[in-house]
Amino acid sequence: MIHGNVQGIRASLLEEMDALYTLELDEDMFAPPELVERMVRYSALLRREVSVYISRAGDVLDVTVGVLDSVPLPEVRLRRSLQRLCGVRCLHTHPNSSPELSDVDLQALVSLKLDAMAAIGMQEDRATGMQAAFLGARVQGIPQPEETGIVAMSQIPQEAWMHRIEESDRLLADTAQELPENRPERAMLVGIESMASLEELRSLAETAGAEVAGVCLQRREKPDNATYIGSGKAEDLSLDIQGLRCDMVIVDDELSGAQIRNLENLCGVKVIDRTTLILDIFAQRAQSRAGKLQVEMAQLSYQLPRLIGEGVSLSRLGGGIGTRGPGETKLEISRRRIRRRLNDLRAEVEELSRQRAVQRTRRKKSELPVVALVGYTNTGKSSLLNRLSGADVLAKDMLFATLDPVMRRVELPEGGAFLLVDTVGFIRKLPHTLVDAFRSTLEEVVQADLLLMVSDASEEALDQQRQVVCSVLSDLGAGEKPCIDVLNKTDCAREDAMLPGAVRVSARTGEGMDALLQEIARRLFASQRTVRLRIPYTNGSLLSWLHDN
């Protein structure tokens, strides 16, 4: 089968090209003349690049047609190892151009660990020369391409270049111990909104442990239903991915199962969306049993509708014509397992919610008011809790450092105390599955007596981030809660950082803490009055009523 851009090619010519798979090639010949001759002929007829992938045994594994100046590079591998070559070399034509290898050619050689990459220069319908490249010594664990000079077709050192492949393979195997352990995945970020949104995605990707190799912004009013960015842009993206040696694509929106599948087919690498990335970060951060249960529930809720298959026709109740056979498909079995596991998780999370409700009831009896820290992720909420309470909760300059709620007692300078709760940070496009799964945790916010809405004074998008927090609070039913705006990180604030009515503090230096505690005390206890009552013995029942109310 001929792959790639075959639109408009006669069926008879495609059938003739298909015969390339049956050629018996000499395994000692790097570029067998009979194969090169036919490749040049087809490329001249089509005015398109033609590539052929050949195994070391001399078998043609793939034939692909491209456009005038490029050709898609399928991931054809015989040997799958990070330490050795893949056992396949690529020959391709450059119609009406020189045989000089492009950067994309060289990066494809590295990323696919091909035995060799060779280009055939053409002028009209004849070959003018060939240039090849092989993998050489590693630099920081990555083998570097080494190019030959351009040689005439009659002077190709066939056997010498085949020996060069064996030398490259031995070199990679001998230097395998130099490979860095746990090398971070290289990611290409893709979005359709703005560079600011992609910068936040970069922070998320780096928090998850990825290395951002490139960024692609394709401005669109709405995502393409098939490929998110459009098929043409997706094809361009695949070349950039090869050139930058990316292992994955991260998209700045939630994708459907079909969009993920189509992008993976076009780009040849793993594709994940923003929701998957955030869920992965939460999975890394989850320490408590409750946190792990809630993350698993969010992940399964997200995965279930993206298992693309036959749907109703495979259900046990559907039945009928077309469903009789040896048994259920693996896909439908996976769906049922996920549903069963989700039911179990929901029951466990509901039990956790009941336990938290009991704990809240006990806290109310202690008559200590509850103050909840809320805000965008990485605004310094945990640092603020540590500064106010003297605790040593993990506080790092990273997204979602806090996942499980943390509660500490804070003493007020003029007497009295309150419980301060640190909760998970919010973010733009917060996955709905995550909000639903963590609803029992976020109940601490809903049930709090007062909210401290923490904003980052060093953040350019301060107003937008605050709007996101207000939106999430509204969705949780806490939009009307009494609230104090807190502008944190004033020690490194931007000159134009303004938030009317906010208490300006620095959790790092301690600046503004006294003013914040005074404002908290005023909000919590302003309506309270100390009174002395004289209750007759005959009305002693009032004492129990006062305690209860």
TrEMBL record:
Name one molecular function that GO assigns to this entry: GTP binding
Q: Which residues form a coiled coil?
A: 328-362
Q: Where in the cell is it found?
A: Cytoplasm
Kindly give the PROSITE patterns that the UniProt entry links to this protein. Answer: G_HFLX (PS51705)
Q: Which GO terms describe its cellular component?
A: cytoplasm
Q: Name one Pfam family in it.
A: MMR_HSR1
Q: Which domain of life is it from?
A: Bacteria
Q: Which InterPro entries match?
A: G_HFLX_dom (IPR030394), GTP-bd (IPR006073), GTP-bd_M (IPR032305), GTPase_HflX (IPR016496), GTPase_HflX_N (IPR025121), GTPase_HflX_N_sf (IPR042108), HflX_C (IPR045498), P-loop_NTPase (IPR027417)
Q: What is its main location?
A: cytoplasm
Q: Membrane spanning segments where?
A: none
Q: Which HAMAP family match?
A: GTPase_HflX
Question: Which NCBIfam families does the UniProt entry name for this protein?
Answer: GTP_HflX
Q: PANTHER family annotated for this entry?
A: GTP-BINDING PROTEIN 6-RELATED, GTP-BINDING PROTEIN HFLX
Q: What is this protein called?
A: GTPase HflX
